Amino acid sequence: MPLDTYVTSHIHIDGPIPGPHSLLTVTAAAHPLDGPTAEFTTNVRELPGATLHPVALQSWRRRAEDWLSTRRASRPPALAMTAFAQWIDQLPGRPVFVADTAEPDYLFLYWYLQRFTGRWPFASTLTDAGLHGRMSCSTLCPLAGCRMPEPSLAWTS
């Protein structure tokens, strides 16, 4: 039986749901039980026709340098998600996505991977906030806003 490799993620977005709003960055860390941690990161171009949510706009205005960082070397969504799925495919063992259901990572990544690759490349999903917190990959995030607490975003106008 193959060992599981736990994958955690950290994303940046410009609104509360995928489609009308875009995934801007993906950072993921793979935590195999018997090997070193592997990392993946990419910036993703905005979806055609998607808009920046007013609450996200306020947040990104306070973090202009971070916004610019998410736009540098951004890839079209199909290329970014194909690269992410290929990275997952090459991980040792069974890839298990570890999600904190209070965060939008699962929603956005599931939607984007299905939309642009036609599949969810994980063998299973574990919704364990405690495990997600212990394996958090937000420390890999290069944005200054990740290193200081961001006020809670209320996705209502």
Structure characteristics:
five-stranded mixed sheet, globular, 5 helices, 157 residues, Nucleotidyltransferase, domain 5
Can you give a write-up of this model?
A hairpin with a 5-residue loop joins strand 2 (23-32) and strand 3 (38-43). The chain is α/β, with parallel strands linked by helices and 157 residues long. The N and C termini lie far apart (49 Å). The chain contains 5 helices and 5 strands, in the order E-E-E-H-H-H-E-H-E-H. The protein is 31% helix and 23% strand. It has helices at residues 54-61, 64-71, 77-89, 105-117, 129-134; strands spanning 4-13, 23-32, 38-43, 94-99, 124-127.
Query: What is the CATH C level class, in words?
Result: Alpha Beta
**Helix amount, in percent?**
25-40%
Structural class: alpha/beta
| CATH 2nd-level architecture | 2-Layer Sandwich
CATH fold field value = Nucleotidyltransferase, domain 5
Main sheet record: 5 strands, mixed
Radius of gyration: 15 Å
Using the alpha-carbon principal axes, give the shape: globular
Number of helical regions: 5
Number of strands: 5
Task: Give the gist of this structure.
With 157 residues, this protein is α/β, with parallel strands linked by helices. It has five helices and five strands; from the N terminus they run E-E-E-H-H-H-E-H-E-H.
What is the secondary structure topology, with strand pairs?
Elements (H helix, E strand, L loop, with lengths): L3 E10 L9 E10 L5 E6 L10 H8 L2 H8 L5 H13 L4 E6 L5 H13 L6 E4 L1 H6 L23
Parallel strand pairs: 1-4, 4-5
Antiparallel strand pairs: 1-2, 2-3
Helix pairs in contact: 3-4
